[in-house]
Design brief:
The chain is an alpha/beta fold. The chain has helices spanning about 10-15, 20-30, 45-50, 60-80, 85-95, 230, 255-265, 300-315, 345-360, 365-375, 420-430, 450-455, 480-495; strands spanning about 100, 115-120, 125-130, 140-145, 150-160, 165-170, 185-190, 195-200, 240-245, 275-280, 285-290, 295-300, 325-330, 375-380, 385, 405-410, 435-440, 460-465, 470, 475-480. A 9-stranded mixed beta sheet has the order 1-2-3-13-4-14-18-16-17, sandwiched between helices. The protein has a 6-stranded antiparallel beta sheet with strand order 8-7-10-5-6-9. The protein has a 3-stranded antiparallel beta sheet with strand order 11-12-20. α4 crosses α13 and α8 (about 300-315) packs across α13 (about 480-495).
Length: about 500
């Protein structure tokens, strides 16, 4: 239905007011509610009837302002944390600002103690010691902090048509055409033979240059119009332009100028790129989306959205009954591989070390196995939500929608949490008035995994849930601010649970 400006006082205000004042009101949520007709507070127990309305319906002005304030902090964090390396850097700063200290060999574990440990700069674990002994188990929230991206090959630099370009590979599932004609930033580290490590970050600051994979214009592309997308652009076509001025002083090519820049600016050589982890990520900043500012558009929300919500939740923990853990891990997008992925023994080793610190010479392997058996683990990962451009991709009766809260993932085929843990989780969410929904893909038509399976195989009780996004695995995914906040509240309630 068209909006009638003359009859809508809010739109009249927006039309006449100064832009800055309006945007400030929108950010705090004081104006947004007037865009829609006031409605009664949703009836209680809608989760029992499975007929809940959007989470935006019925919230108070104060609750709305809290959601919007949380979203501002979230955007600020993920603007800087665009790779697992930069996420861990930001998470360490966050942890120390919130009273966590690094786990050391001399650390004493006392109830309420807050500690963290970093695994090879790419995974971070935070924990708050509970009143119960560690052999009685842990409450763990796990999420991954890597996202789909392009990364440089070991010998990336080459020239073509008098341009310098980088050869790339890809990390995680992407649609190649979505990464062309897009401002890209270069982020990561270069490790040298002498043991020094150089941090690279080019393209995030507005004064920085950016990089881009240029696509053909429609003027010269008609011969390819009948090709399928998979034929149109392949993984070896994803090479960004990085320079085009030749070495005018020494008579070299464009690539020589790039090498000269890297040597002068960072002290690195062509061979140093072999021992580098450099990624190309979207350079655009997180932004509000829509007139009502209810959505966040940003790169890396899979799954740094869950990582940030978990950080905020564990920072709010004071003295829990059960020791609480936030495990934020690398390499989920490529199958939980390597010693920084969830498939490694690192996490079990950490819990074992904590138990040994507590028990000393009384430590026994069966006590550690008992602790695993008593542990509850929430594996959080975002997933696609119903897309208005193609809602038929879902069987809508089992589809998650933006704005409806966290979703419990019901995969079926042996991949769903057992019914008793599912019921326990429903009770936790309902008792804390946290909106939730369910997510099940069309049978045989979609897929995706989380880190959860790696821990259920260790005899830990695991459930998968997350929040829905639009445009997941693209350079600019979309979340609902109220879902992000609901996920934070869910993790916080889980950490605070007392038997």
């Amino acid at each position: 239905m068209p909006i009638n400006i003359s009859s809508n006082p809010v739109l009249q205000t927006i039309r006449s007011a100064k832009r800055g004042a309006v945007l400030a009101a929108l950010r705090t949520g004081l104006v947004i509610s007037a865009f829609s007709t006031p409605v009664a507070v949703a009836q209680e127990a809608c989760s029992d009837r499975l007929d809940c309305e959007s989470s935006w319906v019925g919230i108070t002005a104060n609750e709305r302002a809290e959601v919007f304030a949380f979203a501002e902090d979230y955007k600020d964090f993920i603007a800087k944390a665009r790779t697992e390396l930069s996420f861990v850097t930001e998470a360490v700063a966050f942890a120390e600002e919130n009273g966590f200290s690094e786990l050391m060999p001399t650390t004493r574990l006392v109830p309420g103690g807050k500690h963290y440990e970093v695994n090879r700069d790419r995974t971070i674990t935070l924990f708050v010691i509970g009143e119960n002994g560690l052999q009685e188990g842990f409450h763990v929230v796990g999420a991954h902090i890597d996202s789909p991206r392009l990364e440089l090959k070991g010998r990336p630099l080459y020239e073509n048509s008098e341009f310098a370009l980088f050869q790339t590979n890809y990390h995680g599932g992407i649609k190649f055409h979505q990464w062309t004609n897009l401002p890209l930033a270069l982020m990561g580290r270069v490790d040298k033979k002498d043991g020094t490590s150089i941090t690279i970050e080019i393209g995030l600051d507005p004064s920085d240059p950016i990089f881009m994979i240029p696509e053909l214009s429609p003027h010269v592309d008609r011969s390819r119009s009948s090709k399928t997308l998979s034929e149109f652009l392949g993984p070896e076509d994803m090479d960004p332009v990085i320079a085009h001025i030749p070495d005018t002083q020494k008579g070299g090519g464009v690539g020589d100028q790039v090498l000269a820049f890297l040597a002068a600016e960072y002290g690195i050589s062509k061979a140093d790129l072999v021992s580098a982890e450099l990624s190309l990520v979207p350079a655009g900043a997180p932004r509000d989306m829509g007139f009502d500012r209810g959505l966040v558009a940003a790169y890396g929300q899979d799954d740094r959205l869950a990582g940030y919500a978990t950080l905020r939740a564990i920072a709010a923990v004071d003295r829990p009954q059960t020791t609480t853990v936030a495990y934020l891990v690398d390499n989920e997008e490529v199958g939980n591989r390597n010693n920084t992925g969830a498939g490694s023994d690192y996490f079990a080793d950490l819990l074992s070390r904590l138990l040994y610190i507590e028990l000393g010479s009384d430590y026994r392997e069966p006590l550690f196995r008992q602790a695993l058996r008593a542990t509850k683990f929430i594996s959080i990962d975002v997933n696609p939500g119903v897309n208005p451009m193609n809602p038929g991709a879902w069987e809508l009766g089992n589809a998650p929608k933006l704005g409806y809260g966290v979703n419990l993932k019901l995969y079926g085929q042996g991949n769903t949490a057992n019914s008793e843990f599912m019921a326990w989780t429903r009770a936790l969410l309902d008792d804390n008035k946290i909106p939730w929904q369910t997510a099940t893909y069309k049978v045989g038509s979609a897929g995706g995994g989380t880190i959860g399976g790696e821990f259920s195989s260790q005899n830990i009780e695991v459930i998968d849930f997350g929040v829905p996004l639009l445009s997941i695995h693209t350079p600019y995914a979309v979340s609902s601010k109220i879902d992000v906040h609901s996920l934070y509240k869910a993790a916080r309630a889980f950490y605070a649970y007392r038997d």
